Amino acid sequence: MKINLQGDTNLISEGLELLSEDYGFELSDDGIFLKAIHDRDISISISDEKAEIHYNDKSDFFRMFSFFLQKKEGFFEKKEKKNFDTCGAMIDLSHGALLKTGTIKSILRKMSLMGLNMLMMYFEESYTVPEYPYFGYMRGRYTKEELRDIDRYASILGIEVIPAIQTIGHLSNTLRWESFGNIKDTDDCLLVGKKETYSFIEACIKNISECFTSDRIHIGFDETMSLGSGEYRRIHGYRNRIDIFLEHLEKVSDTCKSIGKTPLIWSDMFFRLRGSASGYALDNKEIPADVAQRIPENVELVEANYSMTDTKKLEERLKAHTDTGRKTWFAGAVHDWHGFCVNYSHTFAASDAALAAAKNLGLREVFLTTWGDDSPERDYMCTLLGYQFYAEHMYNKKATPKDAAERFSVCCKCPAELILNIAKIDSPMREYKLEENSDEIILDCGGKSMSNPSKYLMWQDVPAGLFDTELSKLDYPAHFSECMKKIGSVVTHGEYEVTQKFYVSLCDTLRAKCSLAEDIMTAYANKDKKALHQICNTSVVPLLALIRETWKANRTLWFARHKSYGWEVLERRYGTLLLRLETLLYCLNEFINGSIDKIEELEEKRLPVVSGDEPVYFNDWLLTSTAWGR
Questions:
Q1: φ and ψ at 367, to 5 degrees?
Q2: What's the pTM?
Q3: Is the pLDDT of residue 311 over 90?
């Protein structure tokens, strides 16, 4: 498609060039007439011969342009209004999966058509601080050139990139090294109050700030429950943790101020330090006035809340922040950290309630987070349907999953059906479907809001299956077969083809593995050596081949999206699974031949992980694969 772009084009022509290849258009004098008008409106009108887009910011134009791509011909008009000044997404780039710069640019292009205008890049130790060579060592840290390139690219598309780092906790992978021993309080926390600690923090803030043009920086401060309990206590004795926390915050915020940066912090510790140290202390509804007064004036608070679905309670929680007089952000989540799949049932429900609360209270900054707990196994591109849901909320008073699904197919060039069919793998007691005569995706949220059977059924040991009792809760072979069929039936092109191939292979492996576990236990209980011999040849050997195919499909997917660092973590899981099956073959043959009179793991009665009839949630590879723990 050729487009004759006229009008106020200075801000948007370079961005259109970046989008042209993906979305099949070129700028040409003999194309469809498109006039761009830079004013305060956000609107588009289309007729057969021409189109006109009014925009305030770059992100507004690119969102309206996506409607142009969607409609192309006929008559169409649309006018929108922003509910937020900032709306975007945070990518976790620290938990074993660092996206390639090319992948991040692909996401930025999709974000621009959605109308999102902020990308937060979360680092713990995955950026370069030359003064500290062990910082991010062998973890694929980004170079300054890579980050500056991303920042420039995003700016062309109207997207602000905000760095998010840690300046007190979540630094266990840094503090493990001997060279950081002098600034270590506990395994996870820095030794606050020490001169060398602030030299390190200043170096971190200075180096990361050199890479981004944004005047905002997220400095962390979350989940620091062990603060002051290690070396700090040995030196200073016991002190109230809120005093330690606030004194440190003042020093770090001063560092940000000195270089013209506005610091954001996660707010959970203001509640944790008053309530449960192990939970998020959601029952606390206020930040005490004496504490609020001590929060530095340049600090902005980020309420991270991923699970609450009660809008009124969320409003109370947010009001506790706004009452401090500090600017307040809301951070929700796409539930992508549970294993192979995104939980969209909970993502939609929690996001809808939270964004309604943010609108009701007049918050102007919101974003979604994505996380990589236990090393991410999901394809990151599956999270973008959640991005789209946030974008629809940004420009509409209300938004539905169906709105997001329809727009996703335009902005990401992938049917939302594929993403929801993948989500179904881990939601066997839910339905994700588009209903023709309805305004919504129907989400049957029966059963638990969280389950992730693909995670533990994939990685559990076969002879010592800790999750074998889960197999009786559902016909999992049939479930995974149906998922494989549905995922494989979606017509998919481009960068989602590798997604589809991997998940089809994963389902095939899960189907075979669940069948094997049940068949082996039955045959062994009956001491049916003939059946066991047949299982070896017709089930175990084919399963080994299927796992190798899934490993290869996963490897292809990984290297399409990520830097190589971190793949060794997932590859170790495949290697463990393959070698354990080889040992199972050996033990079965020894038992069949009479060389041994029993297989000890198969003798032991299987016990349930938890009571109840619904699929469980468990997200720890090591404790899934062995009862020995760490």
A1: -155, 160
A2: 0.95
A3: yes
